[in-house]
Design a protein that fits this description.
With 459 residues, this protein is an alpha+beta fold. The protein is 48% helix and 17% strand. The protein has helices at 9-27, 29-48, 50-58, 62-65, 78-90, 118-123, 141-152, 159-171, 176-189, 200-209, 211-217, 234-240, 302-319, 324-335, 342-347, 359-363, 372-377, 393-403, 418-425, 432-450, and strands at residues 6-7, 69-75, 94-100, 108-114, 127-133, 174-175, 195-199, 226-229, 264-269, 273-279, 282-287, 291-296, 353-357, 381-385. The relative contact order is 0.14.
Length: 459
């Protein structure tokens, strides 16, 4: 078979993310309401702010706005995680970043499977935050072994999904018909099953250790637990959630509202109680699935991230227990220290930017000037913020906890183990900061080369 008959991994990801969204809307009708709300807020924001609309369009961000979403799942074993890595690779999604949630009292560690290069991100940036349960952190040996043996019994992948993953790997791609079958088979892994694989007593014992353990262990598969559209105004979306019938999370996670948005802000409607059938004909409920909204800003450098983490920590005491408006107010006061204009973010190397020639730059003679700030001042070069494509562990912990009824177990903290995670995954995770830095450096080199400079910058 020739390569030309393969559909691109971007196309498969696009089909899959749409199929996943349709499935989740059917399973969780409130998610459909959330999508409508976000669509309405985005439309109104773009109508009111034509400058923003033009900028997003020029930056190739408008097209992806409507398909923008991430999801999250939690798996129980290293075999499940390693197979998911292969499944996501078919769709051009690769493990980026390591997140230690034990720090926040949640017994998992995680990565995000996501597209990496610019064209793939622009086409459809669908990502899946994927957590691996850490049974080794459960202290009770009987419970730990019980959980492990329940997990050993299940196969979260269909035979068809396994075959098509192997076929994709051996052929180096999938054709149109195979891609459609792959999407349908892969989707089965993420479907909700209202029949638990255990009896109510087992569920309750695992639930008492940690609600997340019950969620991972007691079902046939790692049901998608939320999907997240991207909004252009999360404050407005948060405000409108109650009127749309949603039980909104108390506060927005992440940085405060700013002129130059940084990183990621998130909120959600809380997980719904769903009827569940346990073995032995017992009825009960399980609370796992919710809907989330995100607003993305510029990616920060290590220096910017250190400042973000310091200010977030400093804000903790001041924001504790406050309702959203007061919380945002207190957060904004602490974050006043974080520069909020693009030029300063760039000059102080707090955030990542992509450099391009302006129209004038394409014809001008820049002489010997190699300083990008000087070239920007001369109107020959522009810099645009690089969107943050990843997650934030403190925010993720806040999302986990708002849906787990605040269960936290300090005994889990201080157990980051990236090595063990990568061993389970069967691959190294890519460092997200290195990806942004490469993108910035490549854009600088391109600009200088186009201006006739032969020396590439390497910072
Ligand atoms: C994942 C929570 C993390 C986010 O957006 O930070 C997450 C989970 O609850 O499984 O999705
Ligand atoms: Ni999320």
């Amino acid at each position: 078979m020739s390569n030309t008959s393969f559909v691109s991994s971007d196309e498969i990801r696009d089909r899959f993310s749409k199929a996943m969204s349709a499935m989740y809307q059917a399973e969780v009708p409130q998610y459909e309401t959330l999508l409508e709300l976000v669509e309405e807020v985005n439309r109104e924001t773009l109508e009111r702010d034509t400058e923003l609309a033009e900028r997003l369009s020029a930056h190739d961000e408008l097209n992806r706005l409507g398909v923008e979403r991430h999801g999250a799942i939690r798996v129980g074993t290293s075999e499940e995680l390693a197979m998911l890595r292969r499944l996501f690779a078919v769709m051009g999604m690769h493990p980026v970043g390591y997140y230690d949630l034990s720090e926040a009292g949640v017994p998992v560690h995680s990565t995000a499977f996501r597209p990496i290069d610019d064209a793939a991100l622009a086409r459809n940036p669908f990502r899946v935050f994927t957590s691996l349960l850490r049974l080794e952190l459960i202290e009770n040996p009987t419970l730990r072994e019980r959980a492990a043996s329940i997990l050993a019994e299940r196969d979260i992948f269909t035979a068809g999904a396994r075959e098509l993953i192997a076929l994709g790997e051996s052929q180096g791609g999938l054709n149109d018909e195979q891609a459609d079958r792959f999407v349908a088979e892969a989707l089965e892994t993420f479907r909700w099953h209202r029949n638990a694989t255990v009896d109510l007593a087992t569920y309750e014992a695992l639930n008492a250790e940690h609600r997340l353990i019950a969620d991972v262990v007691c079902f046939r598969g790692p049901h998608i637990n939320h999907l997240t559209p991207r909004t252009l105004n999360i404050d407005e979306a948060q405000k409108r959630m109650p009127a749309a019938g949603m039980n909104a999370k108390e506060v927005i996670e992440g940085p405060p509202r700013r002129n130059c948005p940084i990183l990621l802000r998130q909120t959600s409607f809380k997980a719904l109680e769903e009827p569940t059938q346990f073995k032995g004909e017992r009825q009960g409920t399980h609370t796992a699935r919710f809907g989330e909204i995100e607003q993305r800003g510029v990616a920060l450098t290590a220096k910017g991230r250190t400042l973000y983490d310091r200010l977030l920590t400093a804000s903790r005491e001041k924001t504790q227990g406050l309702a959203n408006d007061a919380h945002q107010q207190a957060l904004a006061e602490v974050f006043a220290e974080f520069p909020d204009d693009e030029a300063t973010l760039r000059r102080e190397e707090l955030a990542f930017f992509e450099y391009r020639l302006t129209g004038a730059g394409q014809t001008a003679d820049a002489g010997h000037e190699t300083d990008l700030e000087a070239l920007i001042a001369q109107g020959l070069v522009t810099a645009r913020p690089i969107t943050y494509e990843d997650f934030l562990p403190v925010s993720a912990a806040g999302i986990f906890q708002s849906n787990l009824g605040g269960t936290q177990n300090d005994a889990y903290t201080g157990h980051a183990n990236k090595g063990a995670f990568e061993a389970a995954l069967g691959a190294a995770v890519t460092n997200e900061l290195a990806l942004y830095a490469e993108r910035e450096a490549a854009s600088k080199a391109r600009v200088l080369r186009a201006l006739g400079h032969t020396i590439a910058v390497n910072d």
